């Protein structure tokens, strides 16, 4: 039996890397999306392969619908139909709302929310036609509860939750599941670059007393992509150490 193809947007970031590794370890043929000309792309690919993770790359700006269409067409021609999609691409442009400019709003909504439409729209019909598929959308605890200084990010990540529930209803009878994961603070390079005293303040608010591990998010993605998760759809799975309980 051939391995199912899994596409991870923003696949070369901290969380994306962990997701790619977990999917590979669970038998998927992984394709990592990145921006065209992303610095460090070749180094990332070489390191993954040196670690025994066989992963392909697919360049496209996920804020651009036509680039997404061309990317998926290339993947399906060269590798095979996309049967698992992890919408992971995301950025932050934090500011208090009264100081937030239109560019900061547009950049975050376009990258974090519009991208989910742009990529999912390319693969969902094929999944439904074949009678099997998994769409996993990476939201955030701040999309569930909101966050001071993140009106743009919270709005985009909350939008993902509504999108997930709506699309899940449309394809449930077609053998396709659509779920969201809402991580809390995870120990990616970006978070670990925060000053130690600030990180300590963050950890102090988390009942579990620690940051999440990237591989914990990756392993949850791999489970949701598996046959065992076929009865889970339209769900938001909170993985935040108790920071917000819903």
**Biggest sheet record:** 7 strands, parallel
CATH architecture: 3-Layer(aba) Sandwich
What do we call the CATH homologous superfamily? NAD(P)-binding Rossmann-like Domain
In total, the number of strands is: 7
Query: Structural class, judged by helices and strands?
Result: alpha/beta
Strand content: 15-25%
Identify low-pLDDT runs. Answer: none
Q: What integer is the average pLDDT?
A: 97
First-residue to last-residue Cα separation:
39 Å
> Tell me, what is the CATH class?
Alpha Beta
Structure, described:
The protein has one domain: Rossmann fold (3-Layer(aba) Sandwich), CATH 3.40.50. The protein is 47% helix and 16% strand. The chain has helices spanning 14-25, 41-50, 65-78, 102-130, 141-145, 151-171, 189-192, 196-204, 214-224, and strands spanning 5-8, 29-34, 55-59, 82-87, 133-138, 176-183, 236-239. β4, α4 and β5 form a beta-alpha-beta unit. α3 (65-78) packs parallel to α4. The protein has 246 residues and is of the alpha/beta class.
């Amino acid at each position: 039996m051939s391995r199912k193809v899994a596409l991870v947007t923003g696949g070369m970031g901290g969380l994306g890397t962990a997701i790619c590794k977990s999917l590979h370890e669970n038998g998927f043929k992984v394709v990592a999306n990145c921006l065209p000309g992303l610095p460090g792309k070749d180094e990332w690919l070489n390191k993954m392969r040196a670690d025994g993770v066989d992963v392909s790359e697919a360049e496209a700006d996920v804020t651009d619908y036509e680039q997404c269409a061309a990317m998926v067409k290339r993947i399906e021609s060269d590798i095979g139909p996309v049967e698992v999609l992890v919408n992971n691409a995301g950025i932050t442009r934090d500011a208090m709302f009264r100081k937030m400019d239109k560019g900061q709003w547009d950049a975050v909504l376009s990258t974090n929310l519009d991208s989910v439409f742009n990529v999912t729209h390319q693969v969902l019909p094929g999944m439904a036609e074949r009678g099997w598929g998994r769409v996993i959308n990476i939201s955030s605890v701040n999309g569930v509860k909101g966050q001071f200084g993140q009106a743009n990010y919270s709005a985009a990540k909350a939008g993902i939750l509504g999108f997930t529930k709506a699309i899940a209803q449309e394809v449930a009878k077609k053998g396709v599941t659509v779920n969201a994961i809402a991580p809390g603070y995870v120990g990616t390079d970006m978070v670990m670059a925060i000053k130690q005293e600030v990180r300590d303040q963050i950890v102090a608010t988390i009942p579990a007393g620690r940051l999440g591990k990237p591989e914990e998010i990756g392993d949850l993605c791999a489970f949701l992509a598996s046959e065992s998760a076929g009865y889970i759809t339209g769900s938001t799975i909170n993985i935040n150490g108790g920071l917000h309980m819903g």
